[in-house]
TrEMBL record:
Subcellular location(s) per record: Membrane
InterPro entries: SLC13A/DASS (IPR001898)
Membrane-related topology note: Multi-pass membrane protein
The protein's name in its UniProt record: Solute carrier family 13 member 4
Alphabetical UniProt keywords: Ion transport, Membrane, Sodium, Sodium transport, Transmembrane, Transmembrane helix, Transport
GO MF term list: solute:sodium symporter activity
Transmembrane stretches, start-end: 7-28, 78-100, 189-211, 223-248, 289-308, 329-346, 379-403, 415-445, 497-518
One Pfam assignment: Na_sulph_symp
One cellular component (GO) term of this entry: plasma membrane
Leader sequence segment: none
Family the entry assigns: Belongs to the SLC13A/DASS transporter (TC 2.A.47) family. NADC subfamily.
Length: 539
């Protein structure tokens, strides 16, 4: 009961989530649920170090503008046609969000998109202004042949009229189609950030929460790592990316794909050419690729390769070279490479010119301020609080009790149980934060799976992914709020578009868990590691 009371703080957000995550630290010891030292140990886990290492790399990417170079290059390849422009921004956002947080990615990409949109709007306003001047000139010429022509008496009157027209035009988009393009591009970025966050364990905090809670509850299950998660989630992201793009295109741009997606230069309008010019100018400002960007890119590739080859499953990984097994995790790789970024100088060896603005020739790739600026300490405490809450549910027997209350669902097939769980969490997460929702539901769904003799991964993985689909309201997640703050979209637009994206996400996740997820995680059997946990819980 006391553990259930804690979940109220998480879902209601009566206090900041970071503060709510500290409640178990004093409440559990006071009520005799867990010792203070045991609760404290829950606040720093392996995934905490994994996140810290990734943030080091993210700090280097942002400091040396590698993210901007990647984004602009991908958009340049896609072109300035509205449909291809949206697809280009979505692709680069998905890629960046795989490695950076969804919030950071959205905050990085939106200014670039806004610059392109403003160029589109300004060009449209100029066209509208020129058209109105041409029309007035025609009317004046026609009036000259009549009896009386309306003349402007002074230069002040001319200035007043022009300012009035400009203010009127500035208060609106040039055309309704331009407004629709702005809506489509803005919403596509927040949806793409959500999709990209699904692909990797470090892509979003909810993936980290799931990985740590699953490995803590089922220590004998050696199934969840960077490689297996990527193999399962990458096809989901690709399918969702295509379907989401098609949905947004249909909703805001219509069905004329030949007009909006043509790569032919003959079909480009003046505004599209101006937008391309603006993108090229932004890319030119970055200059040639620098030494720190190369180092960051090498570290990025190296970290990914080491994650994939640690324990790939089908062949022995590099951890088999060590005598003691089980000592090295994905966090080992990320922290090691993150630490090296504090040591490697940002200036090219044996080079007389410096690539950085710092006069110190030995200045490292990143310093502590760079790391501190990006490190989401609230998320660290929030994730730790989730682990503490799960530990309290386990010790108090709350998880087992909830599982027994859900025994009437035993007549449902596994896919139906999973579908109900996905729909429930995707609905709740529209009004509560993603980490809070998942933290509350993970112990419940674990107990439910054990009670119904379903492989826990069959319900936990889809629910973890669907908890990220809070895309219908600005309060659903921070990327939504960032996009909404730019003023191109209204809540009604987010609800309409987000509802479709939500349905697409749930459908694709259900497709994945019932097809390629079955052989990947052996979902047809109730595993021995879950049987052992179930027996322990009952005892």
């Amino acid at each position: 009961k006391r553990c259930m009371n804690l979940s109220v703080y998480w879902v209601s957000e009566a206090v900041p989530l970071g503060a709510a995550a500290l409640v178990p630290a004093f409440l559990y010891p006071l009520f005799g649920v867990l010792k203070s030292s045991e609760v404290a140990a829950e606040y720093c886990k392996d995934t905490t170090l994994l996140l810290m290492g990734v943030i080091c790399l993210a700090a280097s990417i942002e400091k040396w503008n590698l993210h901007k170079r990647i984004a602009l290059r991908m958009v340049m390849i896609a072109g300035a046609k509205p449909g291809m422009l949206v697809l280009g921004f979505m692709c680069c956002t998905v890629f960046l969000s795989m490695w950076l947080s969804n919030t950071s990615t959205t905050a990085m990409v939106m200014p670039i998109a806004e610059a392109v949109l403003q160029q589109l709007i300004c060009t449209g306003l100029a066209d509208s202004h020129n058209d109105s001047e041409t029309a007035e000139a025609t009317e004046d010429e026609a009036g000259m042949s009549g009896s009386v022509s309306p003349m402007v008496s002074s230069q002040e009157d001319i200035t007043c009229i022009l300012l009035t027209k400009i203010q009127y035009l500035d208060s609106q988009y040039p055309t309704k189609r331009d407004h629709m393009i702005c809506k489509c591009l803005s919403l596509s970025i927040t949806y793409a950030a959500t999709i990209g966050g699904l692909i990797t364990i470090t892509g979003t905090s909810t993936n980290l929460i799931f990985a740590e809670q699953f490995n803590t509850r089922y220590p004998d299950a050696k199934t969840i790592n960077f490689g297996t998660w990527f193999i399962f989630s990458f096809p989901i992201a690709i399918i969702m990316l295509v379907l989401t793009w098609l949905w947004l295109h249909f909703l805001f741009l219509g069905c004329n794909f030949r007009e909006t997606c043509s790569l032919s230069k003959k079909r480009k309008t003046r505004r599209e050419m101006m937008s391309e010019k603006r993108i090229h100018e932004e890319y030119t400002k970055l200059g040639p690729i620098s030494y720190p960007e190369v180092v960051t890119g090498v570290f990025f590739i190296l970290m990914t390769l080491l994650w994939f080859t640690r324990e790939p499953g089908f062949v022995p990984g590099w951890t088999s070279l060590f005598e003691k097994k089980g000592y090295r995790t994905d966090a080992t790789v990320s922290v090691l490479l993150g630490f090296l970024l504090f040591l490697i100088p940002a200036r090219r060896p044996f080079s007389s010119s410096s690539s950085s603005n710092d006069d110190d020739p030995l200045a490292p790739m990143i310093n502590w301020k760079d790391f501190q600026r990006l490190m989401p300490w609230e998320i660290v405490i929030l994730v730790g609080g989730g682990y503490a809450l799960a530990a309290g549910c386990k010790v108090s027997g709350l998880s087992v009790w909830i599982g027994r209350q859900l025994e009437p669902m035993s007549g449902l097939p596994p896919w139906a149980v999973t579908l109900l769980a996905c729909l429930l969490v995707s609905a709740v997460t529209e009004f509560a934060s993603n980490p809070a929702t998942l933290t509350v539901f993970l112990p419940i769904l674990s107990a439910l799976s054990e009670t119904l003799q379903i492989n826990p991964l069959h319900t936990l993985i889809p629910s973890t992914m669907c908890v990220s689909f809070g895309v219908m309201l600005p309060v659903g997640n921070p990327p939504n709020a960032i996009v909404f703050s730019y003023g191109h979209v209204q809540i009604s637009d987010m609800v309409k578009a987000g509802f479709g994206v939500n349905l697409i996400g749930v459908a694709v996740v259900m497709l994945a868990i019932t097809t390629w997820g079955v052989p990947l995680f052996n979902l047809t059997e109730f595993p021995a590691w879950a049987v052992a946990r179930n027996v322990t819980g009952i005892l």
